[in-house]
Amino acid sequence: MNEQPLAGFTVGVTAARRHEELAALLERRGARVVHAPAIRLVPLADDAVLLAATREMLARPVDDLVVTTGIGLRAWLETADGWGLRDDLMRLLGGVRILARGPKARGAVRAAGLAEAWSPESESCEEVLRYLLREDLAGRRIAVQLYGEPCPELTDGLRRAGADVVEIPVYQWALAEDPEPLRRLVGQAVAGTVDAITFTSAPAVGATLSLAAEYHAEEALLHALRTRVMAACVGPVTAAPLERRSVPTVRPDRARLGALVRTLVADLPVRRTGRLVVHGCELELRGHAVVLDGRLRPIAPAPMAILRALAARPGHVLSRAELCGVLPSGLGPARAQPDEHAVEMAVARLRRGLGRQGLVQTIIKRGYRLACDTALQP
């Protein structure tokens, strides 16, 4: 377990960009990865909008440029190169005060041969706005490179302060072409068969909640994220839409994929691991698997749901009717409801998965219990 600290856990990945890198980092640490892209990055439907904004900047130079994303700045410069305007744009930007929203934007500015005058560590548009509002902005021209959607908290705040704001719409987000993987991931989260979901952009959070709402499962998803499913966000901007809905999030100090994975390694096993002494053996519950006799044993979702319910009340008998309520069901208003036969089948599969006799006991006419001595529990 030390070499693969995420062994036995399932992690959802909603990223479209760099999802292979994130998945590889998680799998290297033992996690089972479910890739369910929430959004996709698409070019502007009409490059004329970006061309017009660029020409306006060249004709009427701005005083400041707010770079909100590294990929946005790179895409803008590449597109300007195709128009034959890159050299003119670079000369202009060389004389403009540049504010880079966070480390990734700062890195892109420097890679382009430019220099930022200021950059927050938080990647927060609110912090950028507070920094600018310390000055008199009346009549000041400020360009804001957008990052896939409008940024009214920044642009409207600047306009209220008297600034002339030029919006640079470099790219935009759209929903994933195939929503089925994300629908399945939402269903897994609601059913409790995924342990964490990673988010690398605020639009991905919004798309996930919107899809859940289409299937009448938004509140169920939010409840899962507030209780048993960890929401791991790459930074505060990404986390903000969830935190506004009272969803606790974990996020790294630096907005990097490697740091995000290290945060999961540090937090997920602590929050989603339970240990019991059952029939004289130490049993460790880890997401979709158990560790028994030092061996990791994968357990299917329905048997694992039964095991978690029994483990929550070690030594106590739970009826078949009670256990029906913990079995995973489908997503949507017409989802199938488990019955007592499904409980019996899940218990039989659980016993086979554990591979040891006597751990799950049948109490005639009452239900099932784990063979625990509650006095011996860690």
Write a structural description.
This protein is of the alpha/beta class. Among the domains are: 42-173, Rossmann fold; 273-376, Winged helix-like DNA-binding domain superfamily/Winged helix DNA-binding domain (Arc Repressor Mutant, subunit A, Orthogonal Bundle), CATH 1.10.10. Helix content is 43%, strand content 20%. It contains 15 helices and 17 strands. The strands form 5 sheets. A 5-stranded parallel beta sheet has the order 2-1-9-10-11, sandwiched between helices. A hairpin with a 2-residue loop joins strand 13 and strand 14 (289-292). Helix 8 (180-191) crosses helix 10. It is elongated and about 85 Å long. It starts with 9 loop residues before the first strand and ends in an 8-residue tail after the last strand.
CATH class of the domain at 42-173: Alpha Beta
Number of strands: 17
CATH A-level architecture of the domain at 42-173 = 3-Layer(aba) Sandwich
Give the DSSP E fraction (strand runs of 2 or more residues): 15-25%
The strands making up the biggest β-sheet line up spatially as 2-1-9-10-11
Q: How far do the termini sit from each other?
A: 19 Å
Radius of gyration: 26 Å
Low-pLDDT stretches:
none
Attribute tags:
alpha/beta; five-stranded parallel β-sheet; 15 helices; 378 residues; Rossmann fold; Arc Repressor Mutant, subunit A
Please specify the SSE layout and strand pairing.
Blueprint: E1 10-13, H1 19-28, E2 32-35, E3 39-43, H2 47-59, E4 64-67, H3 70-82, H4 86-94, E5 97-100, H5 103-111, H6 125-132, E6 141-145, H7 152-160, E7 164-168, E8 171-175, H8 180-191, E9 196-199, H9 202-214, H10 218-227, E10 230-233, H11 236-243, E11 249-250, H12 257-272, E12 273-278, E13 281-286, E14 289-292, E15 295-298, H13 301-312, H14 320-324, H15 340-354, E16 360-363, E17 367-370
Parallel strand pairs: 1-2, 1-9, 4-5, 4-6, 6-7, 9-10, 10-11
Antiparallel strand pairs: 3-8, 12-13, 13-14, 14-15, 16-17
Helix pairs in contact: 3-4, 3-5, 6-7, 8-10, 9-10, 9-11, 13-15
